[in-house]
Task: inverse folding
């Protein structure tokens, strides 16, 4: 039986809506920023000759497709799937939107390419495990940990990250995974207090679980809020805060079990600031590669991650420690983020990859993990210690917590300013040959 024109347009709208909903939900799941999801989806709809209204919520999205005359429409609500962060998929799906727009690909071809992109193999879990462990050991060095602390943190990360991989593969709740992994890693980190006494015991414990800090959701959340996608931004930040609380629970269990109270923190003064800045930059480069590979970026972006992290962290270290006019950490982090953002746009245009795919991992070595750790430590001491010490640790908690938020906000805002200033270039870099 032949379909009427009304039935035909309705069927076309339905098929296109189902595809666009799957496309947008996948982008959301792999960690794409909300503006990119909207722009890509609108571009895809235009390539099909339709108008789209897209509402993106934290766990679901609602999409309504209209024909050109606005006489017919189809609405579909799609739940966001559970897919790990994947910057490579983000890049290729952004490229697909331009392919659809420039080449007018059929819906059948779009479905085939979408499934091919989503089912691509990630990096080897063993490679990710090794690089993440090396990255966190370098992270320890950035906080002045010595060789003993770096070795302990390497082992703590290796064991904890392997446990995370296995539990995630078995479908264990993410919050429980973070609590268990933080507990296991800090149990290894506390051995420096109990047995080795290497001289920077506080760094061994304090950085042993920092590989768990949800840096990309935190950065995406701030970016969404600045870009006026407040609901999604708050949801991403709330989810990240839940994960941080779970890390704190794992740490608290270790601290209470062994009665550890690391109230002093290692601080190393280096006379040659320029050499120290270069050294910090190199360790940050290694850390950036290790943290980046967890999010599965395109391989050609890894070296750019390393370069941007090296420059950004080196700049921040120099600004904070130069004798002439030392900057506070918030200002220095904002300037360093701005440097990374300014460099990320031309690199994005060069390799046709969204700037976020290497700008965000480049920021991760600057995430104020130790301030967050100190805030958690102060919170534990508020509960554990006598009332005479309560106000002291309440003050410290708000001080360290405020610094964590301000440093995080400053470096992210600094990074995304160039991306927003060069908005057209930033959101069209995946369009090859144009």
Result:
């Amino acid at each position: 039986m032949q379909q009427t024109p009304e039935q035909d347009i309705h069927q076309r709208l339905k098929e296109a809506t189902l595809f666009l909903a799957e496309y947008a939900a996948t982008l959301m799941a792999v960690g794409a920023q909300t503006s990119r999801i909207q722009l890509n989806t609108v571009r895809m709809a235009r390539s099909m000759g339709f108008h789209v209204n897209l509402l993106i919520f934290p766990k679901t999205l609602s999409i309504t497709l209209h024909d050109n005359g606005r006489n017919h429409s189809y609405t579909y609500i799609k739940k966001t799937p559970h897919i790990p962060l994947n910057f490579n998929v983000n890049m290729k799906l952004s490229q697909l939107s331009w392919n659809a727009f420039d080449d007018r690909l059929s819906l059948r071809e779009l479905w085939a390419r979408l499934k091919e992109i989503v089912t691509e193999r990630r990096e080897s879990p063993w490679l990710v495990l090794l690089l993440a462990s090396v990255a966190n050991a370098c992270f320890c060095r950035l906080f002045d940990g010595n060789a003993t602390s770096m070795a302990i943190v390497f082992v703590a990360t290796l064991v904890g990250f392997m446990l995370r991989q296995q539990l995630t593969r078995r479908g264990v709740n993410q919050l429980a995974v973070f609590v268990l992994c933080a507990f296991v890693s800090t149990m290894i980190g506390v051995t420096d207090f109990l047995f080795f006494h290497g001289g920077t015991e506080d760094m061994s414990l304090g950085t042993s679980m920092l590989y768990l800090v949800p840096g990309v959701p935190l950065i995406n959340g701030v970016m969404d809020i600045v870009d006026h996608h407040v609901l999604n931004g708050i949801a991403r930040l709330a989810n990240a805060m839940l994960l941080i609380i779970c890390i704190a629970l794992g740490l608290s269990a270790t601290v209470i079990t062994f009665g550890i109270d690391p109230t002093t923190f290692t601080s190393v003064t280096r006379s040659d600031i320029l050499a120290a800045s270069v050294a910090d930059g190199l360790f940050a480069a290694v850390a950036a590669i290790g943290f980046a590979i967890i999010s599965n970026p395109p391989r050609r972006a890894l070296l750019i991650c390393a370069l941007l992290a090296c420059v950004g962290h080196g700049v921040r270290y120099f600004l904070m420690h130069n004798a002439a006019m030392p900057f506070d950490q918030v200002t220095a982090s904002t300037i360093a983020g701005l440097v990374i953002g300014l460099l990320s746009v031309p690199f994005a245009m060069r390799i046709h990859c969204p700037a976020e795919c290497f700008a965000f991992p480049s920021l991760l070595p600057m995430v104020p993990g130790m301030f967050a750790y100190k805030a958690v430590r102060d919170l534990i001491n508020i509960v554990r210690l006598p009332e005479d010490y309560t106000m002291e640790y309440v003050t410290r908690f708000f001080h360290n917590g405020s610094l964590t938020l301000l440093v995080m906000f400053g470096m992210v805002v600094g990074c995304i300013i160039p991306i927003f200033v060069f908005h057209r270039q930033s959101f069209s870099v995946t369009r090859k040959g144009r």
